[in-house]
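Narrative summary of target 7.
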Amino acid sequence: MAEIDFRNKINWHRRYRSPQGVKSEREILRIFESDRGRIINSPAIRRLQQKTQVFPLERNAAVRTRLTHSMEVQQVGRYIAKEILTRLKELRLLEAYGLEELTGPFESIVEMACLMHDIGNPPFGHFGEAAINDWFRQRLVPEDAVSQPLSDDRCEVLALRLREGEESLNALRNKVRHDLCHFEGNAQGIRLVHTLMRMNLTWAQVGCILKYTRPAWWVGKPPASHSYLMKKPGYYFSEEAYVERLRKELHLDTYSRFPLTWIMEAADDISYCVADLEDAVEKRIFTVEQLYHHLHEAWGAHEKDSLFALVVENAWEKSRANSLSRSAEDQFFMYLRVNTLNKLVPYAAQRFIDNLPQIFSGEFNHALLEDDSGFSQLLELYKNVAIKHVFSHPDVEQLELQGYRVISGLLEIYRPLLQLSLADFTELVEKERLSRYPIASRLFHKLSTRHRLAYVEAVSKLSPDAAEYPVLEYYHRCRLIQDYISGMTDLYSWDEYRRLMAVE
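Modeled conformation, tokenized:
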């Protein structure tokens, strides 16, 4: 097992214009303060205020958006980080682990990763992801199916674009097809930070948001040793070279995770479980009293031990006792949050310290709060109640289906840009308007400048004479459409769909 020295992990250098030479503690902290400024002032963070956490298209400001949720995760992440550092200090291990002068950056990296953890999520969350993936799967058909006649002309056009060329390119076609059909918010977050917004963050800061280490084009089961770390796509083919460099700079083995990412993940797990239940009460899906009974019933499979009593029962009793002075709802959730944090944060911190050798090497194949302990069972309790009584609620399901239809519909509207030949689309990019393609020209004008420039830059690095050029150009063109639509907010995508479908 490698020696634990966080000076080898908290890398303050950047991809571009990186500061040189050995830095003092104050200078290193300033570098990470610059990261904080870049992140907080980025448009991707601002857009989170119009992407809802559970209830799409929600106009009630008291219900969480992705931004308010991320701020809560940020606070919990800071709490866990401070708890870890305090315990390491008490054990006199800060100096031994190279953290004595890096406590500030340690906290800052975790905080900002928590704030950024959802920036890649498309409108309507997981249903937006499903809509993007289903749309491309239905049109970029598998290689073994292209020899068969295709009855759906919508599928045929995109399938033909990816089967032009030599047979030797089949492996590349299949790779990019698989990549495009596995859009994932975490992978899109890496793409946003590096490719689309060019934030030029420190290697350590980017490493902390690489939550999953599997590439989107991965086929088959991941190795058992990394099954948890690779359970979802973490980055795309378009960012492959960047992630390879990231691993090198952070001394990470292939498919290993950055150590502080476990803290960000635990903060998210703790935050959203209680928040989803509170939002459901705010939406009047159930009352606080009904929620208490749901929790009590769901815990029935476990022993009524002290943890349930100390967290849920205690919150219920205190909210009843103080209901005359304040809203019983507010009281219950205040105590539930406080009790949950006071139990789970120290446990997560201790799990981090107890498993630090594996966590430091990036090989710990679990979440901090996924084990057979009562603390994990408490989180599962919240999740199970939310699944049974919130996410399956007819109002929620209807909104999710509407969101799925909006994203699918927008992709269909922009399909003409994917139907153009390589020569025609190249000419459209150069001239920005082709009279013979009036619809495609107008759709192209609607794409954001940032996304168009990312496409142009990616294609400019390819050799037009190379055999793989048509496949790679088309890959980046599909990414262009995915980037644009996934970057929309819930309300903007809803309004844009209605405008383009002429239903207003």
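Residues 424 and 436 are 10 Å apart (CA to CA).
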